Amino acid sequence: MTSDHAAGVASEHATGITSDHAADIDRHVKIYISVFVALMVLTIVTVAISRFHLPVPIAVAVALLVATIKGSLVACYFMHLISEKKLILAVLVLTAVFFVALLTLPAVTHSNGYWIH
Amino acid sequence: MDIPYTVEVRRDTGLTNGKIGIWLFLASEVMLFGALFASYILIRTGAPSWPRGDTILNVPLATVNTIVLITSSVTMVMAWASLMRHRFGTFRIYMGTTILLGCVFLVIKYFEYSHKFHDGLYPGTNNFLALYFTLTGLHMLHVFGGMVVNAYFLGPGAKLWKTNPVWFTNRVENSGLFWHFVDLVWIFLFPTLYLL
Amino acid sequence: MSEPGAVAATRPHAAHDLHHEALGFWRTYVFSVDHKVIGIQYAITGLLFLFFGFTLMMLMRWQLAYPGAPLPLIGRLLGEARMPGGMMVPEFYNELGAMHGTIMVFLGVVPLAVGGFGNFVLPLQIGAPDMAFPRLNMASYWCFFLGGVTMLVSFFVPGGAAQSGWTSYAPLSVIAGTGQTMWIIGMLFLITSSLLGAVNFITTTIQLRAKGLTFMRFPFFVWAQFVTSFLLLLAFPPLEAAAILQLMDRVAGTSFFLPSGLVVSGQVLQHAGGGNPLLWQHLFWFLAHPEVYVLILPAMGIVAEIVANNTRKPLWGYRSMVYSLIFLGFMSFIVWAHHMFMTGMGTAMAAFFQTTTMIISIPSVVILTALIISLWGGSIRFNTPMLFAVAFLPMFGIGGLTGLPLGLNVADIPLHDTYYVIAHFHYVVAPGTIFALFAGIYYWFPKATGRKMNETLGKIHFAGSLVCMNVIFMPMFLVGLAGVSRRLYDGGAAYDFAQPVLHWNVVSSWGAWTMALFQVPFIFNFFWSIWKGEKTGDNPWEATTIEWAAPSPPPHGNFLEAPQAYRGPYEYSVPGAAKGFVPQYEA
User: Fold this and answer.
1) What ipTM was estimated for this complex?
2) C164-194: b or e for each residue (b if 16 or more CB lie within 10 Å)?
3) Contact C234 A98 (CB under 8 A)
4) Which of A5, C33, C197, C340 gets the highest tally of CB atoms within 10 A of its CB?
5) CATH level 2 (architecture), domain B17-195
6) Contact B124 C11 (CB under 8 A)
7) Mean pLDDT over all residues of chain C?
8) What class has domain C31-259+273-549?
């Protein structure tokens, strides 16, 4: 193996992208640009919606929804999660479960009467 | 000594050590910021009243900062893509831009903070501000940390490109994952603190 | 990648490493990136902190046995601020209590169990040349070291060390002296160390295991360290966040944990208020409950190895034990508020946490039962490691069973914050985990040094420790059931209802001081054997797991050639086999 070919094969193995052929990278770059535009639009959207001063529960739901979409775009495309190996996804799913528990259980347990229960 | 799978992937997992390592670290960071968000939820829901973010904080400035950080995420991934295309010069431009945008973020935050202090608003003033300063402060430390690592790969660390380009590309990718994560946290922090 | 050449290609410098030139004293023994050196560093430092934490407790036990009595000789040495006329002031008792707990858990047991045993044994047991990230490994040790130094230095600041319990509950911890700030800083170092270590252990286990070593062929010890690492990785960050919030409350004037209208020493506190002390409890226990599984899982791993080896038969129920371990790890994240039943959480959430707590007892019982059944029909060799490992089983059993009433909301009411709780958790951690750690030291000492520890001294150490542990902690159940609260600097002497059980405090104290004497043969044995112990070969215990394929002690890179796993980890007494055990690494 020449070192160039070795480097090519190695980098092929080394990344979440299946080949380092120029066309493939070009396709990915196109995706990055589209995601960038989407993120910009969603940023404007979330700021615009906030100007309506919706009731807090609805404002929270909408803001979180938009943030989740933006976050998912960053995670899936910039961080390559959409093509990542199962092992990594499994760790993240596990983390997500504990994240949700941490965010909800203390508030539900000691809500000082905010929730109706 | 050579540790296996530092550069080449292990066949059954399809991953390098560094890729697994950085994602594990990011998982721990999810729990760190999760705890801070949980604190925000518990304190806010326990408060008799809570100011809307835009009544205290500077939304236009923070919106600019959001755009700055998102842009820096794009330049970061483009920096890595440049290495994948073996364009080292382009890598340097994108990486430099990423660091520069990070600086812009920090400068804007500096102005935000000093304006608050000037108005007599400190972390100890009330819980809204306590959460604001602590959450954005910790986020800022992460931005700074990411910039330091990126600067290393732009500067002294770039020597690795000549001797082991694949390893260098992987390390930049992993560094990028951390940078994207920092952006991701801000994507949630911004509406939570400034808009709600 | 099935040819030997392909394996060698991934480790081209294997042979070279074995003839590695000397790096100089500092890079070899102090700032080494070799997992074995780092493991020994963790182990020795951890043992030193264990003995220091033990000493703190022995001081407390004087006060508990003889409240208000001057402590002869030592009392005067500790200064007028802490022991005027040799008599302990309550603040000093609180310092001792908070630091005993903190040091034992975070500077003693975990560094020894995870940092020490995990680092030394794990790469060897999976046939790896080192950890995935050797420099990160070194960094995590020095982070731990800095955390330990910070904790020790805190004794010397004005006001003394932290004295708000190892749990540092707000608001007391927020208004406490400088020592508490140092506790927080120390914890930040220790948490960082654990996070770096966890990343290393998980990556190493997944990526650097030998060819043929599938997950279900792992020794149970490897599984235990693997699950423990996930607990550390995902449970510690919330405590890190909480520590930062408490630091903000203490130095930046915030009120994350300070409620409005707080009155301290007759003065209304000038702070923003609106904070929630329960927020601290939630964030603290979110870590601290998984932390207790961090304390026990490595111990179960060690006991499993030693039981299999010394019964000369495979572990009974290996698969069940592994699935139980994974289930236990998962459940450990959703039981934490059983430490908070008395905080007014309402019946719905109390029911939730009781349910998860009862469920989590099941995998523990499965693992314990499997280990006990593993003894049945075995050709048992009662060497020192095995004695400690077998004693672990009933001791952990007592600890675990006595936890059940604590996990039930109503039964917890009279037991919460009493000596019953102290007895429960000490049974699990002291004659539980620490016995397993002793077992592990005797067991793996030959691998680390090429020599065995002395058996007679070992048996004296064992017998004395076993009796003393029970003398110390069994009476505490009675004291707790009588209603004596924990953290009382006079052990309950001021209360009428406590009078009938006070004599047990004296019993426990003499048990503790006698226990110290029985550690002397161990300490002597440990150091004497390094130079004068009976020399052994690579596999003195005739064990089957991969670490025994390496030379004793192993060189850099661990193995003369990359090992491969051909079978399960406990092929002892295989019918028709040529010898009484078939190692995992033999073709």
Assistant:
1) 0.97
2) bbbebebbebbbbbebbbbbbbbbbbbbbbb
3) yes
4) C197
5) Up-down Bundle (1.20)
6) no
7) 95
8) mainly alpha
